[in-house]
Amino acid sequence: xxxxxxxxxxxxxxxxxxxxxxxxxxxxxxxxxxxxxxxxxxxxxxxxxxxxxxxxxxxxxxxxxxxxxxxxxxxxxxxxxxxxxxxxxxxxxxxxxxxxxxxxxxxxxxxxxxxxxxxxxxxxxxxxxxxxxxxxxxxxxxxxxxxxxxxxxxxxxxxxxxxxxxxxxxxxxxxxxxxxxxxxxxxxxxxxxxxxxxxxxxxxxxxxxxxxxxxxxxxxxxxxxxxxxxxxxxxxxxxxxxxxxxxxxxxxxxxxxxxxxxxxxxxxxxxxxxxxxxxxxxxxxxxxxxxxxxxxxxxxxxxxxxxxxxxxxxxxxxxxxxxxxxxxxxxxxxxxxxxxxxxx
Amino acid sequence: xxxxxxxxxxxxxxxxxxxxxxxxxxxxxxxxxxxxxxxxxxxxxxxxxxxxxxxxxxxxxxxxxxxxxxxxxxxxxxxxxxxxxxxxxxxxxxxxxxxxxxxxxxxxxxxxxxxxxxxxxxxxxxxxxxxxxxxxxxxxxxxxxxxxxxxxxxxxxxxxxxxxxxxxxxxxxxxxxxxxxxxxxxxxxxxxxxxxxxxxxxxxxxxxxxxxxxxxxxxxxxxxxxxxxxxxxxxxxxxxxxxxxxxxxxxxx
Lengths: 344, 253
Ligand SMILES: Nc1ncnc2c1ncn2[C@@H]1O[C@H](COP(=O)(O)OP(=O)(O)O)[C@@H](O)[C@H]1O
Ligand SMILES: [Mg+2]
Hints:
The complex is a heterodimer.
Chain A: H1 2-16, H2 23-30, H3 41-52, H4 57-79, H5 88-103, H6 109-131, H7 136-156, H8 158-161, H9 186-208, H10 210-220, H11 222-227, H12 232-258, H13 268-281, H14 288-306, H15 311-325, H16 329-337
Helix pairs in contact in A: 4-9, 4-12, 4-13, 4-14, 5-6, 5-7, 5-12, 6-12, 9-10, 9-12, 10-12, 13-14, 13-16, 14-15
Chain B: E1 8-17, E2 20-30, E3 35-39, H1 46-54, E4 61-66, E5 69-70, H2 76-82, E6 84-86, H3 99-110, H4 125-137, H5 153-165, E7 171-175, H6 187-194, E8 201-205, H7 209-215, E9 218-223, E10 226-231, H8 233-238, H9 240-251
Parallel strand pairs in B: 3-8, 3-9, 6-7, 7-8
Antiparallel strand pairs in B: 1-2, 1-4, 4-5, 9-10
Bound molecules: adenosine-5'-diphosphate (ADP) and magnesium ion.
The site of adenosine-5'-diphosphate has 11 residues of chain B, from β2 and α1.
């Protein structure tokens, strides 16, 4: 009740405020991409976790890499409005690329990441060329098929991929020839953190560019986007390719930090889970990934220790509640309490 | 009439959906700087005509010429870049985005910076200034930072026209610009249309006959995908066929 009154008061105050006009309006609009203080939060949290939970560094590294994966999915789903159930295709491609290199005497991690990004981006570009003319349910099915085909290919090519057993014998070299991937996962943690940070810089730049804004336009109204003369297909293909590359990097990170790649890296479950994570955090918001992924992982950890058999049911229930009462995920809730914080 | 190339011309333009022919051998000329109305009963094929001309639909036959050049097979985006711009009968805007963003997106596309990946959108000040100036001109400056969805429908219709103007049209096709707006509130939209630069060739689809006769210097009547008759307003008003199939039908309601 108090909360409701609080929201009402805020909304009324926002509505009563005189409109911003003239140069001031242009100024507000043109400065939307400026960094805000709260954007330091994810990074402070990560460093805080490093200090407070030194025993959980391998898990933290996984979380960071998964945030990158969710970020890549958000570009496609949240910004360009492409509903995909095949994002794991690119994650797995990246994981196998880095993994196969490391299992075949090229364990240098940074070049491995680049190779993973390029391979995944190429797969993204080629499959996008084929499927992105479709939309809606057709497109959804096609993204699913691409991932399923790749998974089957990886299964068949067991001589290189290890098939069902997974890829064995990865030897990842120290970063810069110096920092070993140790048992305690400190190197892996900072490696993932640094890569996520760089990728976040890129994605942030991207979504605030005219290109990024035009993606939002495509999500909001494709017909209108065509009518203002935007080459919609090429925009979509471009973001699909970039997103695939980022997903590839995230797959490679997990492969390199765990020294293992399995078929599940290309699986439907991974594609579906990342959507759930995004919905929990908030879709199309850049920070939805940073909130949704840790929350999901914590929820999974809690629920599965309370109820090892039916934990997935509880996750499902949480989803239903979120979709019913908190459209827009956690960030959607934040908007309601703090409307002024929302970027226009 | 004019001897130079028409701003927009169709020759034998035809489109069928199965057995239904929505455009039947339409020969049409929109002169430079025209104020031309396209009228006809519901389902006559007026919106389909706009869709065909702008490339949202591909014709089953015939040709479309823009400034004398054949554009029949050009993609929609290319036609827009050349200055062939339309508005929608049912508002098509980015509802969750602010008015300023709606217009800025259009201006950016026209300026060829819509695909820029590197600079922040906010750094393209010229585009934002231009979009804001357009909103000001249309009397929408106060709402510039509000999401479109929070606006009254009449204001949304006005935004629809503003977005079109952001594309610097040479030919502007307005598909029932006042559709769905309460009669008392259409004034602002009519004023905006009357204030359009005389260099823009205008084709307006409209049901309100007062509006048509106020704005148009030439009228084409479309019935069942065919041009029934075309001419200056006085001729159309006096045409017995038109009175029967169109004006009469409406007057009878
Ligand atoms: N994509 C489509 N597929 C099938 N029929 C259509 C399509 N678009 C329009 N039509 C039909 O074409 C006819 C003309 O429609 P329209 O051009 O919207 O008429 P108007 O704008 O003159 O009212 C209508 O009977 C409509 O149902
Ligand atoms: Mg119509």
